[in-house]
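User: Structure please.
Assistant: Input sequence and predicted structure:
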Amino acid sequence: HLDRLAVPITFVSGEHNHMFVPSGTERSFDLVCQANGPALYRREVIAGYGHLDCLIGANAAADVFPTFAAALGPTIRAARASS
């Protein structure tokens, strides 16, 4: 039921994440893009980051949170909605 995932999704994974490996987010990203087109989806692999580092890492506020903010921001939502 990948059609049910026709909503904006940003897949984020740390480069060194061994729990949710980057290749897993890549496969998920590819699947939803094939099913629903690429306009709704983004994928970011954060260089040098591991599992929880993306949330609580020493530099996460500067290195990762802008990715989250962009995914949630009104400009991105509007652009994705019009695609």
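The chain is about 50% helix and 15% strand.
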